[in-house]
Amino acid sequence: MTRLQMSSTALVILIGAASLGACDKEAGRKQETIGKVESAVGGVVGDKDLKAEGKSDKVAGQVKQGDLKGAVKDATQ
Q1: Measured between alpha carbons, how far apart are the two ends of the chain, in Å?
Q2: Which of 65, 42, 60 minimizes the C-alpha distance to 74?
Q3: Contact (Cβ atoms closer than 8 angstroms) between residue 70 and residue 24
Q4: Residue 20 has pLDDT above 60, yes or no
């Protein structure tokens, strides 16, 4: 993972953590699922940008659901 990707992922986590008071678990589940699909498709077709975008969406979805532990774990992989 490049420094830019790590910085953008950390930013997503911080923004999401700031809005934890308004957690929308259903929207978070949808965003996490979309991120998983994007990441998988990006990996299969070799599109690094799509894979990174999917990872960011997955992490943001986890944060929206209040799963900070999982978000941090996935963001640092």
Answers
A1: 8
A2: 60
A3: no
A4: no
